[in-house]
Hints:
Elements: H1 2-32, E1 44-49, E2 57-60, E3 67-72, E4 89-96, E5 106-113, E6 116-122, H2 127-150, H3 153-173, H4 178-183, H5 186-198, H6 204-222, H7 231-251
Antiparallel strand pairs: 1-2, 1-5, 3-4, 5-6
Helix pairs in contact: 2-3, 2-7, 3-5, 3-6, 3-7, 5-6, 6-7
Amino acid sequence: MKEHSQKEDFSRTVFAQFMDLFVIPEVKRRQEIGELEKSLDLRAAQIVFFPDGRKPQVRINSEVKAIGKVKLKPRISKKVGDPIREHEVEGLREITLTEEDDPDCAHATLIRISNSWIIAFDFRYNKALSAKHMETAKQFYESAEFAFNQRNWAPFVDNLFSAAELIAKATLLLMPDSKFRNKAKHGGIQVRYNRFADLGNVKPVYRKTFNRLSGLRPYARYLRRDITISEKEARNLLNAVDEMLRDGFRRIKIR
């Protein structure tokens, strides 16, 4: 009961912040220039956050574009394609942007159903770009796995490092930072991912694995000296990056 009350308090706080910071100022601005009626019946609002740092776009009422998964009231059933009326809806399970919007955008969507407001938000930026990095990371991982089976340690390390770095970058891309999106380099990715891990956002073994592979890569890629790695350690590194892959795909909700 206490946990439910805390969730309600959090939802009310988040709702109030979005209204105060984005929706109400935009409504007042448009009312002042005559784009909206003074007696506006506000039923929906949406704030779209762009990954390139542009000012968020605020949509009002019919401007809102979203796909929602709704929870129907008891004893109400629908077939695919059936219309759904407001009075039949008990709540919203999920709201996502439509294909008209950039898939790398984040959003907050507020919808009034009957006399209650429901808020859904997704603050993950660059989801499409992150997914592309994850798919490429998977390919590097599969190459590393093949090299492991052949006991070819140089290509094993080089490919596994590339997989781990792409996973790290994909994870970090989900946060808003246009400079990182456009100019991320090896050192910057590693430093940022270590900080991200220090805050408890990923398992310590992910950071340890990424750093170990980063240290081994110059010897594998540029032949600076022979690689010193046991088959047992190689297997552990491979397993850790496999777990990193699964974690990365979960974060962007794709397999």
